[in-house]
Design brief:
alpha/beta, about 25% helix
């Protein structure tokens, strides 16, 4: 019986469907030639809602945390089964976290921050959020959820960070919060020009670590 020889760069599929296994061309990055009209720059990394929240979050964190944006979930938690594409690693490889607060010196992950807008009320997004909560809880990574709003209170964000830092909330129970009515506000996208002048007074001091309210004061 004559053996059929295949051209280079092709291989047979391991499994035949009803006895019809056809050779297919092996794809490689060298054969991909993107057209000039296929891609274009996105401009900003964050969406308008995420950019509106990033300013107050940066002011609340100060220099004590390094804020990473759009971090892949698989870069925050690890999985023992990496080769199984249909297993646990596949479930976390395509999901991202909005913000991750890290140690500025060692880049060690301290906590994750998610911004929930109206799209998170959909059934599919709820299942996704529940899965992310379970994964981070199993890995022992703290998670803070904020509801998207037009304005944000810097003291409220700072209090949530301090509460998570001081282990006041269990990492297995991510807590959500909205934009409380505070005196210091940050308007999204429309009033960004006077952002520093209106919110500098509420920024944490860079001379020492973030302290809880009442700490270090006389009794």
């Amino acid at each position: 019986m004559e053996t059929r020889r295949l051209p280079r760069g092709t291989f047979r599929t391991k499994r035949r469907v009803q006895g019809r296994g056809r050779p297919r061309q092996a794809r490689s990055s060298a054969t991909l030639r993107p057209c000039a009209t296929d891609y274009r720059g996105r401009g900003t990394l964050l969406s308008k809602g995420e950019a509106a929240f990033f300013g107050p979050l940066r002011m609340a964190a100060g220099r004590h945390y390094l804020i990473m944006c759009k971090v892949r979930l698989a870069d925050v938690v690890t999985c023992s089964v990496r080769r199984d594409r249909r297993g646990p690693f596949s479930a976390i490889s395509q999901k991202h976290l909005d913000f991750v607060l890290c140690d500025p010196t060692t880049t060690q992950v301290v906590m994750a921050v998610e911004l929930d807008d109206r799209s998170h009320e959909q059934a599919g997004r709820r299942r996704r959020d529940a899965f992310v909560n379970q994964v981070l809880a199993a890995a022992g990574v703290r998670l803070i959820r904020f509801r998207a709003a037009y304005r944000y209170s810097i003291p409220d964000i700072r209090d949530r960070i301090m509460a998570s830092q001081n282990n006041m909330h269990d990492a297995r129970k991510p807590f959500a919060c909205g934009a409380s009515e505070g005196t210091q506000r940050y308007a999204s996208q429309s009033n960004r020009s006077d952002y520093h002048t209106r919110n500098t007074a509420g920024a944490p001091s860079d001379s020492g670590p973030i302290r809880q309210r009442g700490e270090g004061q006389g009794r």
